[in-house]
Amino acid sequence: MEDLEETLFEEFENYSYNLEYYYSSESDLEEKAHLGVVHWVSLVLYCLAFILGIPGNAIVIWFTGFKWKKTVTTLWFLNLAIADFIFLLFLPLYISYVAMNFHWPFGVWLCKANSFIAQLNMFASVFFLTAISLDRYIHLIHPILSHRHRTLRNSLIVIISVWFLASLMGGPALYFRDTLEFNNHTLCYNNFHEHDPDLILMRHHVLTWVKFIVGYLFPLLAMSVCYLCLIFKVKKRSILVSSKHFWTILAVVMAFLICWTPYHLFSIWELTIHHSSYFHHVLQAGIPLSTGLAFLNSCLNPILYVLISKKFQTRFRASVAEILKHTLWEASRSGTASEQLRNSETKNPCLLETAP
């Protein structure tokens, strides 16, 4: 049995950094305690993302989806909030996984689904941010073209395409994620192959670089070009200052880059442990922290809307005031009806005697 566990460890240590967490010897207790602190800090980040993100994104979905007028811009932010909200609904599974010292009791299908949703959120978010940036650029720099083609119908086509492409990019998680019984724990990990090291290395490299290039580098270049062109071309015409959504969108894009950049850098760095374990301990601390920072991005967008967008603040206050007014009107109406019923009962005592 011990030989089997050692063999499994040798096969999976290259891309399942948390296996080392359980295989520490007595001499590594101090280092293991340090990793425990790192994992608890990352756990706090996960919980913070969930606590702040669920109500925040639910509010954005409620207002942009049901209360406000449907426009191209509200559709962008609605779908961005939906991507974050779906991911956050599954986040308690990962929180439980980390809290139970990387023990996955939820079965192989939830292991696959949880990882797929995380990938779907990452790709959908960055694709929608890219679409929003391109939309802002065309709307401000090419208004005639924007007026002709910037319609709800065309935006819905783009939205459907984004969700399809994000699902396609997250698909490998459904295929490769698997569970493994190891050292009295069930791990949820990437099972690239059980016996072929070369195939493991190739698949790990391909998926990591595709995720980096398609889900980060190309969108980053597209968004950077859009905003640099906006800054240089509209500076003299003061369009930048008068734009209602520019600073909000720029802040959302910057938040995405700040939160997701460490995650992608550590993912690429993780590839080096196939050849050398020199930075293995750095990765053990860096991967969970960078993952926690990436997850935190899902709760930041609603906060940024409230802090930066004056239009969002105005609409939010107006919608809340409308809801409160309607609630008070209903309560007042209910109270008036109850008072009228009591008065009628007082004037007609016979009603009390015949009541069941």
From TrEMBL:
Major localisation: membrane
Keywords: Cell membrane, Disulfide bond, G-protein coupled receptor, Glycoprotein, Membrane, Receptor, Transducer, Transmembrane, Transmembrane helix
Record domain G-protein coupled receptors family 1 profile: where: 56-305
UniProt-recorded Gene Ontology molecular function terms: adipokinetic hormone binding; adipokinetic hormone receptor activity; complement receptor activity; G protein-coupled receptor activity
BP GO terms, sorted: glucose homeostasis; inflammatory response; phospholipase C-activating G protein-coupled receptor signaling pathway; positive regulation of cytosolic calcium ion concentration
Residues in the signal sequence: none
Cellular component GO terms, alphabetical: nucleoplasm; plasma membrane
TM segment ranges: 37-63, 75-95, 115-134, 155-176, 212-234, 246-266, 286-308
InterPro entries with a match to the protein in the record: CML2, Formyl_rcpt-rel, GPCR_Rhodpsn, GPCR_Rhodpsn_7TM
Protein family (similarity comment): Belongs to the G-protein coupled receptor 1 family. Belongs to the chemokine-like receptor (CMKLR) family.
Name of the protein in question: Chemerin-like receptor 2
Gene behind this protein: CMKLR2
